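REQUEST ID: PR-0412
SUBMITTED BY: lab tech R.K.
PRIORITY: routine
TASK: structure prediction, single protein chain
INPUT:
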Amino acid sequence: MDLTFQRKVLSCSPPSCWPPSILLGIDKNMNGRYEADDFAWQWSLASGGPGGADPGLLHGDTFLQCEAPAPLLSPDLNFVPVNAYATYFCYSPDLLGTDYAPTYAVLLAYQTGAGVPAGIMPTSSVLALKVLAGGSSSWTNFNALVDKVTMGDNMTATTRIDEPNNSRAHFEVMTAK
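STATUS: complete
OUTPUT:
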């Protein structure tokens, strides 16, 4: 019920000025581990090979990639609070793991069953949290800071990433159930 962070986009080139996005690693096979090679899977889809992406790279798991619904008009002057839970839209690999599923919805929709066609059940656990500040070819001249990432429910949301002295670090945080 809670997924927030603070962002400060330092530089970008509109109209390709997208805020940082979130990737949630889903334990689809419910073995207690998130084992998908999510970025490798995305690159295998982008390479345009026959049959689409390589489903073996998901290792029985899947992910939700969540993004802002629109680009920014300019860089941020200060840190800006972002409620990704309420405002970001998410997508995931399809049930076969060869392409993206047609579902593009807010996180609440996945929690209530919108992700079922992709194999994401409302009981599926999030075991990994990644914040992506850059990386897509559409983000030219992009430089951003991310801080104070929280995740949980409204009563027990906890800060997962808080690096005030090194917001440029690479983060991959394994979360607890």
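NOTES: Residues 2-174 form one domain.
REVIEWED BY: pending
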